[in-house]
Amino acid sequence: MSNQDLNGKIAVVTGGAVGIGAAIAQSLAARGARIVFTYHSHAPSQQALDALRTPDQQEAIAYSIDLTSESAVEEFGSEIEREVGKVDILVHNAGGLVERSRIEEMPYTLFRNVQTLNVDSVFLLSKRLIPLMPEEGRIVIVASLAGRSGGHPGATAYATAKAALFGFTRGLSKEVADRRITVNAVAPGFIEATPFHDTFTTEASKQHTITTIPLGRAGVPDDVASAVSWLASPGASFVTGTIIDINGGQHFS
Fold it and tell me: What distance in Å separates the CA atoms of residue 128 and residue 1, rounded to the nearest whole number?
C-alpha cells in the first residue's frame, strides 16, 4: 500500500457539497476513501454525488444536518455507526462568516452565532466521532488566514473563531496522540470559486487581494484539497498539532 492509498478508509467531510469541501471530498474519494459528507445550506447535485464515487464505485453518503445542534450531531454519530461503523478520517470544513459587522455595531447574538458555527460545531462533532475512530485516524480542521491576520474589515468575529481552532487543533492533538490519531489544521488564504467569496467579497476587493499575493494568483479549492489529502494519508503519520498556511506567500507565520 502506498503512503497515499486510502482504500478501505471512511472519510467524513463537513460542508462537502460545494467549494473547498467538495474539492476535499473529491480528492479523498479519488484516493479510495468512501465519503460521508454533510451539508446544510448547499444541497448536493447528482453531478456532485457522482464525482464522489471511489475508483471501485463506492457511492458517497450525504447527510443534511445542523452541526450546531448537539442532538442532531448525536443522531448523526449513531447513523454513522449503523451505516459504516467507523470514521478513519474526519475533515471539519463547515463554517462561515455569517455577515460582515464591525464590533461597535455587532449584536452579541451575531458574535455568538459565528463562534457556534465555526468552533462549537467542531467540538461537538469531534466529541461524537472520535470514539468511532480507530488507531492512526486523521483529523483535519479547515481554519483560515483570517485567524492569523484578523481578516478584512467586519470579520473580527470570524477571525476570532478561526484563531480558536488553532488552539483546539493543538490541544486535541495531545489528547488523542496515545492512539496515534493525528490532528492538524490548514489555514487557506484567498481561495476563489467558493461561496464565501462569492457572498462576502466584492470583485474589486478580489482583484486587490491578488496583487498582494507573491505567487500572483488566487488560490483554488484544489490547492487546499491536496494539502488536506496529504494530512489524511499514511504519509503524514508523524505530523500532528500543525497549521499549514495555504496562501501563496501572502502571509508567513
Answer: 30
